[in-house]
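Consider the subject:
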Amino acid sequence: MIASAMAATGLAASTLMPARPAFAEDQLTVTSWGGPYQTNVRKAIFDPFTKATAIKVIENEYGGEVAKVRAMVKTKTVNWDVLDAETGAGAQMCAEGLLETIDWKKLGLDRTKFISSEVHDCGVPTLASGAIVAYDKDKLPNGPKTIADLFDTKKFPGKRGMWRSPYPNLEWALLADGVPTKDVYKVLGTPEGVDRAFKKLDTIKKDIIWWTAGPQPRQLLDAGEAVMSAAWYSTIYDAVKNSGKHFAIMWDAQAFTWNNWVIPKGTPRLDEAYKFLAFAASAQAQAELTRYSPYGPANKDAMALVDPTILPDLQTTPEHMANALDSEAGTTFWIEKDDELRQRFNAWLTQ
């Protein structure tokens, strides 16, 4: 059904070049998050885009590091043409002048149709994403129910997999220490709150296995190296749906945000990058992606095209969002505090 709609509408065909034999310059390097998620983006977006435009997508992977983009732009050696960035990092890079400002008229899309498009001027929102806590039901039949269980090594002894990043670990630490969800960023914005978060992390520091790439949480759970792990939703969904794993998700305090397609400043393929953004952000492409990765689409028009059987699995259902972190408050907070808290986090890791 979605594929038919894509064919019928031509996926913003007015913004795309007709298919023709590809030349060396007809290529685009797109960097995303790797793992099952990137495999699914390839199926839903990369390959159809190449088929429609004859522009070959060269894929790259990263772990969300702003420093890599900063180094490319500052040294004028930009070789990533499009980047898949979560909102906080995108806003930070935009504020630093590392990204192209999006010209929505050139893009040919209505900005008001996109959730969270007003947060910064350098990105086109693509989907809801974020970190959740996952576990193997065969090993933990009575698994964690709240984020406090991530920090309870008496009730759940064993290693925990956690993303090597201050976000969302500082927020989760405060929640586990009794801070209400609505007050997390208020508390974390104080020196006492930061100290409190690190003190809580200290209680499980020796039990943490740090990961930096999307596929690693599944590997930790598969090997029994961790009893539970923070993970990207698509990694766990893919393991359950396509590999028959008996993994379960603990949705409490999911670290919810929006991903954005952004363009590093200085790419020599700016026109091709705009063609990609127009294609990837269309309602049809975002709906198509839900067939493989059940993230909520940011294009409001996409929801009408989503297969109804997929709707209960979307990360953005009311049940899954009941106690999610406030993505808007989190974005504002991390724009202001990222460098400061990342430095402290990195120093804490070595202590």
